[in-house]
Amino acid sequence: LNANYNYRWIIVGATDREKFKLLEKEIASQKVILWGYENFLYKLYYMCDVYLDLPRSGGGGSTALAVQCGIPAIITDGYSDILPFLGEENAVPDFDSSLEKLKELSESKVKRKQLHKEEYKNLMGSKWSLENYVRVTEAAIDKAIKERERKQVRK
Fold first, then answer.
1. Considering all CA atoms of the chain, what is the largest pairwise distance in Å, rounded to the nearest integer?
2. pTM value?
3. H helices of the chain, where?
4. Which of 26, 35, 122, 126 could join 31 in a cystine, given CB atoms 3.0 to 4.6 angstroms apart?
């Protein structure tokens, strides 16, 4: 965040300030804006260049809407409700990779347009099926189980 002064983060949703203590300086300088809950997300999307969807489970509606509004989304290939619809090929492996992808996209309008084109095609095309959703979800769950087992072996 501090390396590039040409962009800001808008954090939408539950914005308990206690969770964002590490970003106090950035919040004070308006580099990070804690927006709170928003009923009309599409209005925010027209202010954004990239939607960063942190690893979580929540239905995928906000990410799908961002893509429909023309914004490329950065998603991870772990369990995510939106992964089956935007495509595994458009996902990154983890949070650190999300930040690397954010930097890459912030520096290239062409790359942002390419990613959006692929995600939009997947979202609105044949990948939007129950069969694909189940296949990708099963693969993500299998990956999570293997990762947990790998971590347990290390201990």
1. 47
2. 0.72
3. 24-28, 41-45, 61-68, 83-86, 95-106, 109-124, 130-154
4. 26
pLDDT tens per residue, the chain (155 residues)? 555 556 777 888 766 667 677 778 888 888 888 888 888 888 888 888 898 887 666 667 888 889 999 999 999 887 777 888 888 899 998 878 888 898 888 889 999 999 999 999 988 886 566 677 777 778 878 888 888 888 888 76
Check if the beta carbon of residue 57 is closer than 8 Å to that of residue 36. Answer: no
Tokens of 42: 């599409």
Yes or no: say if 73 and 55 are a contact pair by the CB < 8 Å rule.
Answer: no
Q: What is the DSSP string of 15-33?
A: --GGGGGGGHHHHHTTSEE
Terminal-residue alpha carbon distance, the chain: 33
